[in-house]
Design goal:
By secondary structure, this protein is of the alpha+beta class. It is 36% helix and 25% strand. The structure holds guanosine-5'-diphosphate and manganese (II) ion (MN).
């Protein structure tokens, strides 16, 4: 789950990371009122979209008075930044900047450790720094069992060659940022730029946070959840509790289990097709779940054929087959369906499906055969 900057700052604030005082608003009048309430100019008017490079795109402006806030807010609200429309602007007290740095934590899956990146070259995209001057990024790998100690953080800051004036402030923020990342259950926390002020304070001027949706039950993330931007197909699937990711192709896929769903995508690709989605219906393949899954896929105009790939485990073949038959009684599906059913009690399941088979509901003995057939039907 990706947060907007203002939410990321709220998240950082709850871990005591210094951020600028500000307010999120959705109208020009509220932007002016917010600036007046902040009571101190200049303020920064910042477009809230989940994409980088807002500054370059004209989505970040310093305003010296209420009139300028009005001008910039009306320019920015409704602006399109790389395909994202601005609905919210964040107004915050402007900061004086002596230097701009970069700091982040993410998971390095192959190393099975947390990866911290720190650079004295901030305010530009880290990918650019990685290309032009990779040595300018100081990396550390942190064993989650050990955590990040103050002495390691200090060595890390020294290795990144920040201004010595920034050392104490940076160490303090990095320790807090690591706590936000681990205790806050984030997959990514990034501050770019992390600034050194002329006064010597270190401060987060931007916030990019991705939370781990699997940890939502441990937190109160309702406000963050409410503003998630989903593609309409993903929204519909989400409301039905389905694990769904929209893709660009023409073969709709329903499988039970994330591993099988991914293999199904691969096999469809292998035989020259392309999937329109990833959809894992999980363990239970009853009529309710199957109906929901078929509805979501049926509403996607790019789908030309549907592949139902089920491997019975705890859910037995006859339950799956009954679920599919019942689902097809409830919804009318526009595209032909190809089923592959294997695993526990597959034979019983297949005999239940047998009398219902037609040109628009076909069955194939193996995953590869089914993939070939469905790709052929998708044209
Ligand atoms: P991004 O372009 O989407 O990453 O947005 P940022 O929030 O990182 O802002 C981009 C740039 O705008 C920063 O690197 C700063 O140079 C500048 N900027 C943002 N806030 C302030 C501020 O309070 N004061 C000053 N002087 N510059 C700012
Ligand atoms: Mn930034």
């Amino acid at each position: 789950m990706d947060l907007f900057e203002y939410q990321g700052k709220q998240f950082f604030g709850s871990f005591d990371i210094p951020v600028s005082r500000g307010r999120a608003v959705t109208t020009v009048d509220d932007a002016v009122a917010a600036a007046e309430e902040i009571g101190q100019y200049p303020v920064v008017v910042k477009a809230q979209v989940q994409v980088g490079g807002r500054g370059k795109a004209g989505g970040i402006k310093l305003a010296d008075n209420a009139d300028e806030v009005r001008t910039y807010a009306s320019d920015i609200i409704g602006m399109d930044i790389k395909g994202h429309t601005v609905h919210v602007v964040w107004i915050e007290v402007a900061s004086d900047i002596a230097e701009e740095y970069y700091a982040s934590f993410t998971l390095d899956r192959s190393a099975k450790k947390h990866l911290g990146m720190l650079s004295a070259q901030g305010g530009v995209e880290i990918e650019t720094v990685a290309e032009t001057d990779p040595d300018a990024i100081a990396k550390i790998w942190i064993d989650p069992v050990d955590g990040l100690s103050e002495s390691v953080a200090r060595e890390w800051v020294e290795a990144a060659k920040l201004n010595p004036d920034a050392t104490d402030g940076a160490v303090d923020i990095l320790l807090k940022l690591y706590r936000a990342y681990t205790e806050g259950d984030a997959d990514l926390v990034e501050i770019n730029p992390l600034i050194l002020k002329p006064t010597g304070e270190v401060h987060a001027l931007d916030a990019k946070v991705t939370l781990d949706g699997n940890a939502a039950f441990r937190h109160d993330w309702a406000d963050y959840e409410a503003t998630q931007e989903r593609d309409v197909r993903e929204q519909a699937a989400h409301e039905k509790g389905l694990q769904y990711v929209g893709l660009e192709g023409s073969v709709g896929i329903i499988a039970n289990g994330a591993g099988l769903a991914m293999s199904t995508l691969d096999v469809v690709n292998q035989v020259g097709g392309s999937a329109s989605n990833f959809l894992d219906i999980g363990g239970g393949a009853d009529a309710e779940v199957m109906t929901g899954a078929l509805e979501v896929i049926n509403n996607d105009p790019s789908v030309k054929a549907i592949f139902i790939n089920i491997f019975g485990g705890i859910t037995r073949g006859e339950e799956v087959a009954n679920g599919i038959v019942e689902a097809l009684n409830r919804v009318t599906i526009d595209s032909p369906i190809v089923i592959r059913l294997d695993g526990t009690n597959a034979d019983e399941g297949r005999s239940i499906l047998e009398p219902h088979l037609s040109d628009s509901l076909q069955m194939q003995p193996t995953m590869l055969d089914a993939a070939r057939k469905v790709v052929e039907l998708a044209g």
